[in-house]
Amino acid sequence: MTTRSVILGCGSYLPAQVLSNDALIAAHKIDSSSEWIERRTGITQRHIAAENETTSDMATNAARAALTDAKIDIADFDLIILATTTPDHTFPATAVRVQANLGMERGFAFDVQAVCSGFVYALTVADNFIRLGQAKKAIVIGAEKFSRLLDWNDRTTSVLFGDGAGAVVVGAYEGTGDKSDRGILSTHLHSDGRHYGLLQADDAGFARMEGQEVFRHAVKNLADVVDEALASNNMKPEEIDWLVPHQANQRIIDGTGKKLGLPAERVVSTIAKHANTSAASIPLALATAAHDGRIKRGQIILLDAMGGGFTWGAAVVRW
Ligand code: UT7
Predict the structure, then answer these.
(1) Which of 217, 246, 249, 274 is the catalytic position?
(2) What angle do CA 208, 140, 265 make, to 5 degrees?
(3) Which ligand 1 atom is nearest residue 276's CA?
(4) Which of 75, 81, 138, 140 is surrounded by the fewest CB atoms within 10 Å?
(5) Which residue minimizes the CA distance to atom 37 of ligand 1?
(6) Which residue, judged by its Cα, is nearest atom 20 of ligand 1?
(7) What is the Å distance from ligand 1's center to 43 Cα?
């Protein structure tokens, strides 16, 4: 017998305000065009949190939706891990505010910071707690108010990001230890701090990115980690039912899908509507495809992400 972490439900939250490319350009007088943004990234719109709406508010809403989806009471949980780059405050962890909001009076909660790879990192940490028996049920959240890191005058970043949150509920399950098990089959994390400066918050707190360099590394690192994930499960690309990637650029998403030989219909893309929501992008995409009926029980899902640090990673999950 092998303990596995099974995804028992998922949920998401998007702020009410939606800004099309044209509306964003007009609101902030950005020297860009809707045509450029869509052609280079696939983005057509993004959700932007209200002034007084916090990362913990969005995370709480996504977590509640995931709890409802899983039909499990908060009293059953012993762990919350929140991946975010935009915590409510420098300390304490935003996760403990979510813990209080949800009425969870036991267990433990903490944040994970791996920028756009944050959800894959957080899911990996939760999986390890569960497989070691230190937690039985966990809520794993990716939530970002990334708009507050944007310098609207910097068109190389301001048109790319959006706000939102997604969450999954994970629980221990006794499997056989082979790839026919339900749950998280493997996780793969990497970082390379030599590239710290290529995608970072500057001294004023604004997001700065060397886009082309990040793009180049993303394509290579994602291809490598996807190969690693498949090899470790002795899986062929055709065994993947759904690629649910981090949503940074449609061209990167297409590149990974093509490398795997997956038709576009088996790649979940939400970038057009959500833009890049950093740590929230994968759970937002997962919740979208699970709730519209695309992702079904028993299917194999491959998650992959790359972000500042650089950090990158992948997970193979049987839904
Ligand atoms: O989520 C974490 C990981 N992030 C990523 O993986 C993002 C990776 N990078 C990218 O997705 C792309 O590099 C970007 C979308 C950021 C940029 O696209 P690109 O095709 O690499 O554009 P570029 O930086 O090579 O710029 C091409 C041209 C330049 O003009 P010239 O020099 O050719 O005249 C830029 O000045 O586009 C110009 N440009 C813009 N034009 C209109 C740059 N940003 C804009 C803009 N609107 N917003």
Answers:
(1) 246
(2) 75
(3) 1
(4) 75
(5) 36
(6) 40
(7) 13
212: Cβ below 6 Å to ligand 1?
Answer: yes
**Ligand 1 pocket residue status of 116, Cβ below 6 Å:** yes
Provide the number of structural domains found in the chain.
Answer: 2
Last residue of a domain, one of 159, 175, 191: 175
Are 271 and 203 part of one and the same domain? yes
Strands (E), 62-160: 79-83, 108-112, 137-145
Choosing from 175, 192, 226, the residue where a domain stops is 175
CATH of the domain at 266: 3.40.47.10
The strand pair at 311-318 and 207-209 is best described as unpaired
The distance from CA 249 to its chain's CA centroid, rounded to whole angstroms, is: 14
Q: Please say if 52 is a catalytic residue.
A: no
pTM: 0.98
- Residue 221 domain boundaries: 183-318
Name residue 206's amino acid: F
**Residue 36 CB–ligand 1 contact under 6 Å:** yes
Q: How far is the CA of 32 from the centre of ligand 1 (A)?
A: 11
- Report the DSSP pairing between strands 242-245 and 300-307: parallel
Q: Is 307 in the pocket of ligand 1 (CB under 6 A)?
A: yes
Q: Do 222 and 244 have their domain in common? A: yes
For ligand 1, say whether the CB of 306 is within 6 Å of any of its atoms.
yes
Angstrom CA distances, 251 to 39, 197, 254, 258, 313, stand at 9, 23, 5, 10, 18
In the residue annotation, 188 being an active-site residue is answered as no
Judge if 144 and 261 occupy the same domain: no
What are the structure tokens assigned to 311, written together?
């950090």
Could you report the per-residue pLDDT of 18-42, keeping only the tens digit for each? 999 999 999 999 999 999 999 999 9
pLDDT score, position 1 = 86
Cα separation values, 41 from 146, 278, 315, Å = 17, 15, 24
User: What is the mean pLDDT for each group of 10 consecutive residues in the chain (319 residues)?
Assistant: 96 98 98 98 98 98 98 97 98 98 97 98 98 98 98 98 98 95 98 98 98 97 98 97 98 96 96 98 98 98 98 98
